[in-house]
Amino acid sequence: MSAAEPVPTIGLEVHMHLKTRTKMFCGCKVEYDVRPNSNVCPVCLGMPGVLPVMNGKALELAVRMALALGCTIPGLAKWDRKHYYYPDLPKNYQISEYDQPLGVKGHLDIETSQGPRRIGIIRVHLEEDAGKLMHAEGGGNYSVVDLNRTGTPLLEIVSEPDVHGAEEARVYAETLRQLAVYLGVGDCNMQLGQMRCEPNISLCIGADAQGKPRYTPISEIKNLNSFRSVERAVTFEIARHREEYEADPAGYTLEKQGKSTRGWRDDEGVSFLQRSKEEAHDYRYFPEPDLVPFVPDRQWVEEIRRTIPDLPEIRRRRLINDAGLSEYDAGVLTADRLIADYYEAFAEYVRDAKIAANWMMQDVMQILNDRKIAISEFPLTPQAFGDLVNLVASAVINRNTARDVVLPKMLATGKPAGEIVKEEGLAQTSDESAIEAIVDQVLAANAKIAEDYKGGKKAAFGRLMGESMKASGGKANPQVVKAILTRKLGG
Amino acid sequence: MAVTDLTACEIRKAIAERRLSAVEAAEGCLRAIGRLDPKIKAFLSTDPEGARRRAAEVDRRLAAGENVGLLAGIPVAVKDNMCTADGQPTTCASRILGGWRAPYDAHVVERLKAEGAVIVGKTNLDEFAMGSSTENSAYGATRNPWDLTRVPGGSSGGSAAAVAARLVPIALGSDTGGSIRQPAALCGVVGMKPTYGRVSRYGLVAFASSLDQIGPFGRTVADAALLLRATAGHDRRDSTSVREPVPDYLEGLEEPVRPLRIGVPREFFSAGIDPEVESVVREALAVYERLGAALVPIMLPHSTDYAIATYYIVATSEASSNLARYDGVHYGYRSSDHTDMIDMYMRSRAQGFGDEVKRRIMLGTYALSSGYYDAYYKKALAVRRLIRRDFEQAFAKVDCIMGPTSPTPAFRVGERTADPLAMYLSDVYTVSANLAAIAGISIPCGFTAGGLPIGLQIITDVFTEDRLLRIARMYERETGWTKRAPPIAEDAA
Amino acid sequence: MALSSKEVLKVGTLSRIRLTPEEVEKFSSQLSAILDYVDKLRELDTAGVEPLAHALPIHNVLRPDEPRPGLAPEQALGGAPQSEGDFFRVPRVLDEGASA
Predict the structure, then answer these.
(1) Closest residue, chain C, to A137 (C-alpha)
(2) At A1, is the pLDDT very low, low, confident or very high (cuts 50, 70, 90)?
(3) Residue B63 contacts by C-beta under 8 Å, 6 or more apart in sequence?
(4) Chain B residue with the nearest C-alpha to that of C23
(5) Is residue B121 one of the residues assigned to a domain?
(6) Contact, A421 vs A397, CB < 8 A?
(7) Is the pLDDT score of C99 beyond 50?
């Protein structure tokens, strides 16, 4: 057991700004990139004598997100004070939810390159954001504070340690963002600081004598401000944990070293220690006496639940709205989750939802029907199929060649599209002079049909196209043929 | 008769009937303050120009036939832990607020202005309302007008003394563990703590958020009723303020409560009570009996010593949190000798806070800290529920509970400052009402042989201030204590 | 419950209050006496008694998501011991994360 490959075990804490007009506990506006200390009032400045009042919209958005994540909404949620001293936290405590949060026990389904995964969610809760502390420009020995952000409503989503790799971590964060944006819960622009992602990473290094799993110490990474850095940081950390563990298998464990906090330097691609276990906070949580508990009305919760689309619906709408597919097509492509997964991977690969949809509907589905197989048995990966489509898009081969010649060969031999085209010399030509020569020949050989066309018989054009394509062995670029033919026919 | 001998109700009537102007009323108080306050030190700051301006404005509007409000032209003092935005600083009797000027008015201050009151000044208190003698003020102790060698009680000692010495007819104080009722008793005036949530806390600098309430001081029950009516009511800026409608506390004040069952807890007459206090209070209970009330022995097993212990965990825990914000970063006092950020916090707070505040912050921090939370804070909250149950059970049997407000009359300045615990025990009869969130009042009920006032405390259930005031008025009508003035105030104006 | 000097210093740091050695000694004995007194709560059996955190049984006090006027930057910064332009100014923070 001890020789088993360590398994990266990652949980993510995501904080997102809710899409409200005002702050969590006061009527100041939530705005970005405005004059410093211009959206502040005595309440969010933590002046003597002030009191917080809950923003009803923030609660509604939080419940919406929690429900979309499949959470249970408990009968009572209460606020607590979390104490620590910092210049960007005017009261020197943050109002948060400690032991009775807004939502518990949910999940998020994500699609990765290795297939679908379900990531458990432990809890969802509300809190207020702090302000911004910045070091003085010009390297002075002081810092400056802007409290505009203080009090912005934050939703914190804590996952189970179900994520097992860097790509998964990134996809989890991106999927959360997509969900939040779709639901209108948050804009989640990481560059504006509207979404922060803090992975907690350790490796599972086997089990003890009782079968209880053992881990390397947990490192929590902060200051990640893009999805790419999330992936890079997790990759780095997994490798770092491996190294540390191999260097000291007896000492580099969770029991011995606990949890640490590390920052991330994106330009250097490294993490660095900020705070170790011994310096852990004593937050001195206690119930916030200035706020009363939130007891969500069950009917109100159900009304919110009714307004949340389920995931196939989200995907269907996205295909209709963003990709311009017809309702019918979108419906077919999202009815089966695996077909939807395939399609989305395929569409992303070819970067064109409509073209991908066409191929799926006309070719993939046809093949599935003909062979009476499920998508999981379809021999080509979305990427392999995508390569074929990209050859058509880049005009290496035309659509007919792709569908009628290359695709069957790919299915039969398993060879990649590019290789087949090369081996069989199937690349089409767009050489205008060569095609012009062919068109001239065809026009000469079919003078009567040409006259028919000039005389008004439109259908004759199609026949001439067909003859030209045939004469080129199917390799001429049809767009070019059409253009030249049109020119020569004087139309 | 000097204007300062008039009650607020009398001033109100006289001004409404144009026998007295608001300016005359304000000038009368400002003169008395000028003459007597150097000895009493009830005020931390006064605003004579502002008061005159506001009084003149009231007179102008009354002359124009406008309805100016419930408190039209009545001079008022405000305890200096309530934010006032024009002219005067808000200090909480602490150095750590370092001359801070509040950019907003407390809700109750807005109410005073809306009702036409004339705020003449901010009164002294124990620093951040922590204390029972007003000796913890960073700006000097206030003296008891009945005996200048003694304390006025605390923490609202300034407001109590100002009313007792007839410097102003009414004043606002705050009560977290007895800080209105106890100084009222020691100064021989009426002081009331409303039910928690009755009066908005917005703009009251927080000490213990689940216990603090703002309440009125007056020389008579009617004056307290008037000031309560003007300041009570829902405020959307305070999530703990209730939507219960505010009755007209003056209407029906003269109607006695009949039948009246008075609970007399044996715990309120325990060891430690001054024999003169006990004897005078029992005489007051006898007056109620003569009025037809029934005295019912009851037990409040958790509501004295255990209540003090509970209070000094709950209140200090909340205080340690509420006072965390005083760090010299965004406002207030910042030390000048610090080396780095953390050192700045440490020194600013060490230099800005007095000893009692430091003690309570540390006690509260300890009680909330990891490893101690269950044994102290959580335990205290459970006992709080037992205290509440004591009162629920009592109010099932009686209409009110009575006893002495304070176990002793006013003690001498410096007498208890060496022993914090001895000082804490001054609140033994008052803290339970805060913990149970119920209403309580102290009314004068006699004097010691040495001429020191003694207060009778009456407690009723939540949101029954109208009955509480009527019960208090029953006694006041039978006796004349509220008419007696301290010798110092009898110097002719 | 006796508090040692070490514990008093720790609580002082947690409270962000600098204590002189004399104060440590003084507060140590005063706080110990007070903690002794509050320890009497142990005499009470509170098994099964729900802590009373909120004074009144109110729930769901909410406000609408409507902007309200706040303070102008001059007012917000007006009481600041040190400011620089539109910012509050503080001594340099040494570590890059929040402190306990």
Answers:
(1) C84
(2) very low
(3) none
(4) B355
(5) yes
(6) yes
(7) no
**What CA–CA distance (Å, rounded) separates B44 from B123?**
5
**Phi and psi of B190, rounded to 5°?**
-90, 130
Q: Which residues of C touch A59 (CB under 8 A)?
A: 62
Question: Do residues A288 and A267 lie in contact, with contact meaning Cβ atoms separated by under 8 Å?
Answer: no
Would you call B443 helix, strand, or coil by DSSP?
strand
- Cβ atoms of residues B151 and B135 within 8 Å: yes
pLDDT digits (tens, 9 = 90+) for A434-458: 888 888 888 888 888 888 888 888 8
Q: What distances in angstroms separate CA C59 from CA A64, A79, A292, B408, C54, one per listed residue?
A: 20, 12, 5, 40, 10
Which CATH number is B223's domain given? 3.90.1300.10
Q: If residue A196 lies in a helix (H) or strand (E), which one and from where to where?
A: strand A195-207
The tally of domains found in chain B comes to 1
Average pLDDT, chain A: 91
Query: Mind listing the domains of chain A with CATH numbers?
Result: 7-303 (no CATH), 308-423 (no CATH), 432-488 (1.10.10.410)
Mean pLDDT, range A253-267, rounded to an integer: 92
Residue pair A489/A453 in contact (Cβ under 8 Å)? The answer is: yes
Question: First-to-last CA distance in chain A?
Answer: 78
Helix (H, G, I), strand (E, B) or coil at A207: strand
Give the residue among B335, B38, B279 at the shortest CA–CA distance from B167.
Answer: B38
Could you give the domains of chain C? 5-42 (1.10.20)
Parallel, antiparallel or unpaired: strands B261-265 and B400-404: parallel
d(CA B154, CA A346): 76
Residue B208: list chain A partners with CB under 8 A.
Answer: 289
Q: Locate B164 and state its tokens.
A: 């007792």
* ipTM of this complex prediction, to 2 decimal places: 0.96
CB of C59 less than 8 A from some CB of B: no
Q: What mean pLDDT do residues A216-234 have?
A: 94
CA distance B472 to B288: 10
Residue pointed to by tokens 């000031």:
B227
CB B172 within 8 A of CB B222: no
H/E segment holding residue B466:
helix B465-478
Contact A133 C93 (CB under 8 A): yes
Is residue A373's pLDDT more than 60? yes
Neighbours of B, requiring at least 3 CB pairs below 8 Å, are: A, C
Q: Is C57 in the B-facing interface, judged by CB distances under 8 Å? A: no
What angle (nearest 5°) sits at the alpha carbon of residue A211, between those of residues A205 and A215?
Answer: 25
Q: Which two tokens stand for residue B47?
A: 């605003």
Task: Give the separation between CA A155 and CA A62, rounded to whole angstroms.
Answer: 7
Sort strands A153-159 and A7-17 into parallel, antiparallel or unpaired.
antiparallel
Alpha carbons B198 and B209: distance in angstroms, whole number? 14
Closest CA relative to residue B82, chosen from B187, B190, B175, B184: B175
Element (H, E) at A111: strand A103-112
Q: For residue A337, what pLDDT is reported?
A: 66
pLDDT digits (tens, 9 = 90+) for B356-379: 999 999 999 999 998 899 999 999
Q: How far apart are CA B166 and CA B171, in angstroms?
A: 11
Residue B161 lies in a domain: yes
User: What distance, in Å, lies between the first and last C-alpha atoms of chain B?
Assistant: 9
Angstrom distance (rounded) from CA A26 to CA A337: 43
Select the highest-mean-pLDDT range: A237-251, B174-188, B475-489.
Answer: B174-188
A284 touches chain B (CB under 8 A): yes
Tell me, yes or no, whether B342 lies in a domain.
no
CB contact under 8 A, B313 and C11: no
Three-class DSSP category at C17: coil
Q: What is the pLDDT of residues A166-187, one digit of tens each?
A: 999 999 999 999 889 878 899 9
Domain interval for residue B7: 3-255
pLDDT > 90? residue C55: no
Rounded to the nearest 10 degrees, what angle do helices B8-16 and B221-231 cross at?
Answer: 70
